[in-house]
Design brief:
Elements: H1 3-17, E1 21-26, H2 28-31, E2 39-46, H3 50-61, E3 64-69, E4 73-78, E5 83-88, H4 94-102, H5 105-117, E6 120-123, E7 127-130, E8 136-138, H6 141-147
Parallel strand pairs: 2-5
Antiparallel strand pairs: 1-2, 3-4, 4-5, 6-7, 7-8
Length: 159
């Protein structure tokens, strides 16, 4: 689908689920501002109560059929064949999930290779961790780039 259509749907969903989340962000190819978008990726931190998650699911159901539902993702097959992936994060995983789910896949591979070459590992739930000690070294986009001795790359330049 076209970028503007996908962005509008993503923003609309985030606005509707606002009462149920601590924060949320559009990720994926929308965040990278690609002209053609395969799916709509959202990363959210829900307010922890069961009823809040039910509210989020009810809103997502208004966009299509929930195909997958777990503790880390809700996937919706939209009414116009679009796929909406809503990734569930917490305070520690939010920034890392935004980074990884923004992509691109090639960019993520480069980050992972760089981290391994420096004795670290990029973990989607914790951030950049030391492979020997398991200690978290960085867990925000900019701090991960910095820890990898890389210049921060704006999302639209991540190919």
């Amino acid at each position: 689908m076209k970028y503007e259509i996908a962005k509008t749907i993503g923003e609309e969903i985030l606005e509707k689920i606002k009462p149920y989340v601590i924060k949320g962000k559009i990720a994926g190819s929308i965040r990278r501002k690609k002209p053609e978008v395969h799916d709509i990726d959202l990363v959210i931190i829900p307010i922890g109560e069961f009823m809040m998650m039910e509210g989020i699911k009810k809103i997502l159901r208004s966009y299509g059929i929930i195909e997958m539902e777990g503790s880390q993702i809700i996937r919706v097959q939209g009414k116009n064949d679009e796929v909406i992936d809503c990734y569930i994060a917490n305070d520690k995983s939010y920034e890392v999930l935004v980074l990884i789910r923004t992509g691109s896949a090639h960019h993520n591979i480069q980050l992972a290779k760089r981290s391994l070459s420096l004795g670290m590992k990029l973990d989607f739930s914790k951030g950049l961790i030391d492979r020997n000690s398991g200690k978290v070294i960085a867990n925000t986009e900019k701090s991960i780039f910095s820890a990898l001795n890389m210049t921060y790359v704006e999302p639209e330049n991540r190919n």
